[in-house]
Write a structure and sequence with these properties.
By secondary structure, the protein is α+β, with helices and mostly antiparallel strands. The protein contains seven helices and eleven strands. It has two domains: 4-133, MutM-like, N-terminal (N-terminal domain of MutM-like DNA repair proteins), CATH 3.20.190; 147-266, Helicase, Ruva Protein, domain 3 (Orthogonal Bundle). The structure holds a DNA duplex.
DNA sequence: CCTGAAACCTGTCTGC
DNA sequence: TGCAGACAGGTTTCAG
């Protein structure tokens, strides 16, 4: 589910409070529980995984790509929400949610639940976050992501631009929604070959990606269906989930097709193939 | 290296 | 109402 803006919203909420409930920063853990074994992707603590959490304190919450990183000295707990992951912090007074896969209870009685209906989400407990995220590409909101950088990256790539942008080892954080929206804003057809983009198009794409992600974060992400809550970006979609409706720029009907096995929305006039 | 298909899962929505 | 089928914010693995 969540892409960079939604993950960033979770991180800020876990740190300062918000959609997940109370913040978890500086809370001391009393116990942890794993309710779906496969949710745990790996752990440096081995069989001691659950007991390791006792008496540890969450000291920071950060993000890398779509991974949430909880710093719990001397280790790090990484969380990837995949398609349906969710995090809630509450006072621990009510029953555990139906789809809770992992949870931490704090000494003050509060609790953080990792809820994941489809069970695709994963967590890692590690001494070194890099061992998990080392294959990720650059941050699209970082300083490295410039038109020169993208121009060089796409130079010899015969791939279609949409799967290229979704490749987390190139750029970390873009998902289906923000890729469709960015390509629309840049006027680029999702099936165009990466290497076919002009320097001007590459520059425009960099700018629209940064702009769309920033707007997504400003609006706390996009809430669609039952999966994510609290966001407002869904009210600003130009093409995503708008097949058959009018393009906000030219009035042509938005089309939906499949690109790289992903539902893909675009304007046939603004984004010529 | 690139693409498509399948797998991992459950829930929702659509059409008959 | 029931039921089959399609589809869903992601990633990995495998075949061609």
């Amino acid at each position: 589910m969540p892409e960079l803006p939604e993950v960033e919203t979770f991180v800020r909420s876990l740190k300062f409070g918000g959609m997940t409930g109370e913040p978890v920063l500086d809370r001391k853990i009393s116990s942890a529980a794993l309710l779906w074994q496969r949710t745990l992707a790996s752990s440096d603590a081995g069989d001691e995984f659950l007991s390791w959490f006792q008496e540890k304190t969450i000291r920071d919450v950060t993000r890398r790509g779509k991974y949430i990183i909880l710093q719990i000295p001397p280790k790090y707990l990484l969380i990837h929400l995949r398609m349906s992951g969710d995090i809630k912090v509450d006072d621990g007074g009510s029953l555990t949610e139906k789809h809770t896969r992992f949870l931490m209870k704090f000494e003050d009685g509060t609790r953080m639940q990792f809820i994941d209906t489809r069970k695709f989400g994963r967590i890692w407990l590690t001494d070194d976050p890099e061992s998990v995220v080392h294959k990720l590409g650059i941050e699209p909101l970082g300083e490295v992501f410039t038109s020169d950088w993208l121009t060089a990256k796409i130079a010899h790539s015969p791939r279609m631009i949409k799967p290229f942008l979704l490749d987390q080892s190139i750029i970390a954080g873009l998902g289906n929604i923000y890729t469709d929206e960015s390509l629309f804003m840049a006027g680029i057809h999702p099936k165009r070959k990466a290497q076919s983009l002009s320097a001007g198009e590459a520059e425009k794409l960099v700018n629209t990606i940064r702009q769309v992600l920033a707007e997504g974060i400003r609006l706390n992400g996009a809430s669609i269906d039952w999966v994510y809550r609290g966001g407002q970006f869904q009210n600003h979609f130009m093409v995503y989930q708008r097949a058959g409706q009018k393009c906000p720029h030219c009035g042509a009907l938005i089309q939906k097709t499949t690109v790289g096995q992903r539902g893909t929305h675009f304007c046939p006039v603004c984004q010529p193939e």
